[in-house]
Amino acid sequence: MSRSAPAARTPPQQVVTFRRNYNSWVARETLEDYALRFTPRTFRKWSEWRVANTAFGAASFLILEAVGATLLVQHGFVNAALAIVVTGLIIFLAGLPISVYAARHGVDMDLLTRGAGFGYLGSTITSLIYASFTFIFFALEAAVMAYALELAFDIPPAWGYGICALVVIPLVTHGVTAISRLQVWTQPLWLAMLVFPLAFVLIKSPDELVGLAGFAGSGGQGPGFQLMGFGAALTVGIALITQMGEQADYLRFMPEKQPGHALRWWAATLLGGPGWVLVGVLKMLAGVVLAYLALSHMVPPERAVDPNQMYLVAWEYVFPNYGWAVAATALFVVVSQLKINVTNAYAGSLAWSNFFSRLTHSHPGRVVWVVFNTAIALVLMELYVFQALSHVLGLYSNIAIAWIMTVVADLVINKPLGFSPPGIEFRRAYLYDINPVGVGAMGVASVLSVAAHLGAFGPLAQAFSAMIAL
């Protein structure tokens, strides 16, 4: 009777020290921040106001002023002001249900989209849309900061872009823990430097703004209300609606609503969620005022939309010494842009983590996607994306609005009427891979609005292409 050969022994798995250390590093939740999962109660450890303050810090971004200035220069005061107010109203109403669901269920924008009519793989499309928002705005915001470095230190923009991109990475690697500290430390300084020069100009030199209400812009349409100008301005401004995704990414850390503290929970959710747009509207209107002030000081229109030039003119009213005005402007711009770009980089890392984990079925760690997102933004900066601000936002807004409003429709219509499960179901086993309800609605709205934006349905539809996406 022959004896069977002994089974081959499996060689022991060799895990190099570097790989073991890397796996341990990326598994730390202070770095990962539950990038692929909902936020458990044990990690929602901050107070309501700490979370709200962290989310509210994103309102610092100076592209708000740049958008307001661009709308004034292109479409005149009346059209710009009305478009800004309507933009704020739409974003607030759309942002309210997104904020409440994110805070209540501890989900980021990706998981919220997944459970609001898009399905497991369907939300991959929106993760790409969202990621593109984060690196586009990262590039725009960092470009503004690079121009501040050029103004103060004569650093060439090509070098400034790299500095402004790289400085964000170490601030974002430790997630919301480090970001919340940054927002707490910088909030008082940012608010003071935002309000003081504007108040100084309005109180000391109101006569400088006498002709603002009659400013017609470069469109040659006259000083009053023009339907086409209003629609075109609204299409640019409404692109900011995607900022609600970044607010949701922070609000998922909101602690559960406790008996007796419901008012505090709601107030914090409103402040950290749609509340940012109240300040956002004021900042866009400030951009309108400051751009007019810059134009009245013979600043060329293409430079008057740069927040550095706008605030430099304002600070020159405060400090007659040009050097002090430059220093104040540079400090304010750097603080403002750091506050928003840590948010852009953080939200982008979450979006890319979700996007690639479903495509590749692997996750190298959120920090890898922080670097990846920053690298894409740096390339855009080197391509001078800021000079094409209105064109970039005008086209992007049509797709972004279609996505956000599809999510909102599911939350405020389908769920209350019972057409959709009442909670946010994000687990793959309970979802369609691609839910035709959300993906189909977004696809139809995107195609129609982009076609309108490109002029397929005439000039009026082109001006109001963003409203078609709604």
Summarize this, please?
The protein is mostly helical. 71% of the residues lie in helices and 0% in strands. The termini are far apart.
Q: How would you portray this structure in words?
A:
The protein starts with 16 loop residues before the first helix and ends with a helix. The chain has 22 helices and no strands. Helix 4 crosses helix 14 (276-296). Helix content is 71%, strand content 0%. It has helices at residues 17-26, 29-32, 48-56, 63-75, 77-105, 109-118, 122-153, 157-166, 169-172, 175-204, 227-237, 243-251, 262-272, 276-296, 301-304, 307-318, 322-360, 366-382, 389-417, 436-453, 459-463, 465-469. It is globular, with a radius of gyration of 24 Å. The protein has one domain (42-469): Hydantoin permease, CATH 1.10.4160.
Low-confidence region ranges = none
SSE string, helices as H and strands as E: HHHHHHHHHHHHHHHHHHHHHH
What is the level 1 CATH name?
Answer: Mainly Alpha
CATH architecture: Orthogonal Bundle
Secondary-structure-based class equals mainly alpha
The oligomerization state is single chain
Overall spatial form: globular
Query: What is the gyration radius calculated from CA atoms?
Result: 24 Å
Whole-number mean pLDDT: 84
Total DSSP helices: 22
Topology:
Layout: H1 17-26, H2 29-32, H3 48-56, H4 63-75, H5 77-105, H6 109-118, H7 122-153, H8 157-166, H9 169-172, H10 175-204, H11 227-237, H12 243-251, H13 262-272, H14 276-296, H15 301-304, H16 307-318, H17 322-360, H18 366-382, H19 389-417, H20 436-453, H21 459-463, H22 465-469
